[in-house]
Write a structure and sequence with these properties.
231 residues, alpha/beta, Undecaprenyl pyrophosphate synthetase, 8 helices, 42% helix
Length: 231
């Protein structure tokens, strides 16, 4: 499929893992595992389509309200996904991996994996993969404000660019398109600052069953839109 426009930065809210599992009569954990397996497949397809930055909403600050058992399982899944084999594969593909969110709230073992992953891939230039873990857009803005106050920057020097450079996505362009799976039509605290002029695409497909063809539909829809930015 030929696309006229491809988003430079794509954000995806991965929603529907548990509902997918429930529909299949499976434990919710299987939905999470199936969803994680889908990340690599869709990530590779995004690269094939020419998307340079991919930001995935995998675990929100609100998700800490879930059961301890489910949270523990998710943290183990995240740690597994950052295992040596997967990291070497990312590095081979020249992908820079960044974890955005409250890293200090994550289990120590996961924090160590994150440090290793970010160190290994920090100089990669081909593409960027942001995984939003323990992420919340409002908390991110609060943290940016705190950073600016600590730097004692004069009020008249505070600009949009300055705030952007103090976010967890520091220095990155804003997302052109945000896709949400699972049939829910809201951002749920994802990229609150960065999404001011993003295009949105919502699909009823649960994340574990979201395919390359579904992404093609989202990209085609995006390519047909006229982005005027208020002009």
């Amino acid at each position: 499929m030929s696309m006229q426009k491809i988003p430079f930065h794509l954000g995806i809210i991965l929603d529907g893992n548990r509902r997918w599992a429930k529909e299949k009569g499976l434990p919710s954990f299987e939905g999470h595992r199936k969803g994680l397996n889908n990340v690599q497949k869709i990530g590779d397809y995004c690269a094939k389509k020419g998307i340079k930055i991919l930001t995935l909403y995998t675990f929100s600050t609100e998700n800490w309200k879930r059961s301890k058992r489910e949270i523990s399982y998710l943290m183990k899944l995240f740690a597994e996904s950052l295992g040596k084999k997967n990291l070497q594969e990312l590095h081979k593909k020249e992908i820079k991996l960044q974890i955005i969110g409250q890293k200090e709230k994550l289990p120590q073992a996961l924090q160590e994996r994150i440090k290793e992953a970010e160190k290994l891939t920090k100089n990669n230039k081909k593409r960027i993969l942001n995984l939003a873990i323990s992420y919340g857009g409002r908390i991110e803005i609060i943290q940016a404000v705190k950073n600016i106050i600590k730097k004692k920057i004069p009020v008249n020097k505070i600009t949009e660019e300055l705030i952007n450079n103090n976010l967890w996505t520091t220095g990155l362009p804003y997302p052109d398109l945000i896709v949400r799976t699972g049939g829910v039509q809201r951002l749920s605290n994802f990229l609150t600052w960065q999404s001011a002029y993003s295009e949105f695409y919502f699909t009823k497909k649960f994340w574990p069953e979201f395919t390359e063809k579904d992404l093609d539909k989202a990209l085609l829809d995006f390519s047909l839109r006229e982005r005027r930015f208020g002009k």
